[in-house]
Structures are given as structure tokens and as C-alpha cells.
Amino acid sequence: MSTDGFNLAHGIGGAKDLPISPELAIAGATAALVISFTVLAVAWRTPRYDAATSGRPAPAWLTGIVDSTWWRVLWRAFGFALFLYVGVAAIFGEDLVINPVFGVFYVWWWVGLVPLSLLFGPVWKAISPVRTINLAFAKISGSDPDTGLFTYPERLGHWPAALGLYAFVWIELVYPYSTELGPVRLWVAAYVAVMLVGGALFGNAFYVRADPFEVYSTLVSRLSVWGRRDGQLVVRSPLANLDATPVRPGLVAVVAVLFGSTGFDSFKDSATWIKFVQGEDLSSYLANNLALLAFCLGVGAIFAAGTMLTGLGDDLRRRELPNLFAHSVVPIVVGYVVAHYLRYFVEVGQLTLIQLSDPLSNGSNLLGTGNWEVNYWLGYHPTLLANVKVLAVVAGHVLGVIAAHDRAIKILPPRHQLTGQLPLLLAMVAFTVGGLYLLFSS
């Protein structure tokens, strides 16, 4: 089956979409990081973000809506209805690249969670069909969906979510049959089965810590203005919200998979990698597997080294530092998702909405969108697209530096609050240079 129609739309579109000097962009981004750190060192001497006190209560009318039963039921029903609708296309639809399952799976679910979570908070938690099914089972059996048969082991933290995210990026970026219905159906079935078993065993704590998409959505939502303090809906600075990210084992692994896989997605389309794979006896499948793993492990190793190479207080252990600073990578991840997937999401996202009107590929127009056309406006404005991409990368890193600086002056001893950040600053500079290089080379 030909997959060209899908894959050609995938990714950042290549250097032809970036009519600006790569050297200038990389130099400017590096200068922005260094200047930001210098300004912070001079003007930001005390912590400014505290999850326990930051933010103001949301308007009473808004809190009343968001916390109402009908509001929660509405979004659970929407998520489950979409799940069933796409499930029909997956089970009974044609095994063609025009089947909307692929767009929903790779575009709406994976990329779409980012803007939705930035705007509205942890969206996947609200619409997750596996949470809905688990809730229904609990109601039928008379049990509490928040509690399972066992207590979720704290030492596992987010490690299962990191593995789940890796499984997703593997099928998207490495598996050679990623646009055939069989593998996608199997992947989703395995995901649903694992989530339902986990929910039955450990209750909703399993979804908070181990559901790859809930962890992903919730992490991104930390950069929204919506937060919770003692259960109350509050409006606060996104960086204050980010500071409230719970520190759990495996958090570095999650951000490393998210960041590393996005970098690999750019790299695998670069001329350097294509020439290497074509010139070696190593199969492209094995080479891509090794490269994806190397990117994810490399990001994790660089970040861990950047955070651990610092002086410590008496109450900290060096191995605790990576997870304590891992929240600072979230803005970087979001910046690269915007830079890498913006055009892809806008254009293929529209195409998916059109295809959803014909889930069985029989010419139907169930949603009334079948006659719509994709708007390629972004593709016709390459300079604007280039500027947005570079600004997204730079802004993500600057916000990451700010988040890391605030955490450093909160947990590091005074004599190491500035010098202790230098290795992490160097790691972020390396991420910036590498990311922009990949942005221009693919």
C-alpha cells in the first residue's frame, strides 16, 4: 500500500520552508539563552513561583461550570463517542491511507493534545475513553474508580508512561507498516487493554502516572493558565503552574522520549541520515531503531549530566536532581512540537476532519465536511512559517532557562545557585543548536 500521500505531509517540511539564514538563527538563539541567564543571575535572586500560594481563584461562574457533574459527563460522552466513531472506521473501514483512523491516531491524538492542553488544561484526563470505561465498570460493580486492588508503587512513577510514549513514537517513526490498519488497531487494542487492567488494579492513580497520553497532556497543561490549588480552580502564570509539576520517578524519561523522538523525526529525513542508511549494509529498519533509541537516551543523558554536575546541599542527593529539574524541559518540548509539527498539524488536521465524514470510504458525508478543502495558507507564507518555528524553539528554551533558574535558587545552596546552573545552561545551548540544525537540515 502506498503511504506517500501521508508521509509527505509529515514533519516540518524541510529547509525549503525556512528562507532565513541557519547560522543567524542558531547564533541568535544561543545569544538569547546566554543573555536570559545573565539577566536572571542579576535580577532574579529569590524564588518567585510557589504552587502552594500562587494564582488567584477563577471566576465563581467558571468554577461552577467546570466542577459540575454535567460538564464532566458532557466531555466524557464526547470522548467516548469519538472513540466509538473512529473505532468503526478502524474495524470496518478500508485499509487505505485515506481512512481517517491514521489522521486521528497520528495527528489529532498525538499533536492535537498539545494546543488543546495549552488552552484548556489536561484535556485527555477529561475525555479519556479508558477512564470512562473504568468508571462504568466501577459503577456496575459498586466499587470506587479511584481505588484499585493494590496501591500503585511510587517507585514506578512515570516509567510506564515513558515506555508507552516510546511505543507510540516507535510505531509512528520506525515501524515500516505504520500506515496499515492492522498494526494501528493492534496498538490501540493493546493500549486500551493495558489501561483497563491497570485501572482495575491500581485505580485512577494508574492513569495519572502511567497513561502515556494523560501524562503527556497533563505535562503540557502545566504551561496553561489553569491550575488547581487545594482542589480549587485557579488562574496563574504558566511558569508558576509549571513549578507545580509533581516530581516523580521516570519524569526525565518522559521528557527525553518526547524531546528525543521529535529530534529524530527531523533527523531521519535529513540528507545526512538518508545517505548514511543507503551507503551502509545495515538495514534501514535496524538503523532507525538504533537512532530513535540513541536520540531519546542522548537527550536524557545530556540533561541528567547537566543537572547532576553541580554542588549540593546536605539534604539533596545528586541522583535526585534530574527529576527535580525535569519540568524545565516541558517548554522546550512544546517549542519543538510547534516548530516541527505546525504545518503538518494544520494541514493534515484539516484533511482528517474531511476524511472523518467518510469513515468507511464509501463516498458518504456523515459530518457534512466531506466537500471541504484543505487550506494551505501556511505553506504559501514560508517566511512567516520560518519565523514562527524559530521563535517557538527560542521561546521554549528561554522559558526552560527561567523555570530551571527559579528551581535552582530554591533548592541549591547559595554558593552554587549560579555556578551550579552553568552545566544545565550548556546542555540547553546544545539542545538549541542541535534542534535548530535539524530544523534546517531536513
From TrEMBL:
Q: Which domain of life is it from?
A: Bacteria
Q: Which UniProt keywords apply?
A: Membrane, Transmembrane, Transmembrane helix
Q: Where are the transmembrane segments?
A: 24-44, 73-92, 104-124, 187-207, 290-312, 324-342, 384-402, 422-440
Q: What is this protein called?
A: Fenitrothion hydrolase
Q: Which organism is it from?
A: Nocardioides agri
The record lists the lineage as: Bacteria, Bacillati, Actinomycetota, Actinomycetes, Propionibacteriales
